[in-house]
Amino acid sequence: MIRSLTGTSLIEYPGKLSSIIFISGCNLQCPYCHNPELVRPDMLDKEFRLTHEEVIKELITREGFIEAVTVTGGEPLLYSGIVDLVQSIKTGTDLLVKVDTNGTLPQCMKDVLRFADYVAMDLKSSPSKYLKATGGQAAFSDVRESIDIIMTQPDYEFRTTMVPGIVDRDDVIELLQEVGIVRRYVLQNFHSKKTLSAEFRDMPTYPKGYLEDTASIIKKMNLAEEVTIRL
Question: Cβ(218)–Cβ(175) under 8 Å?
Answer without folding.
Answer: no
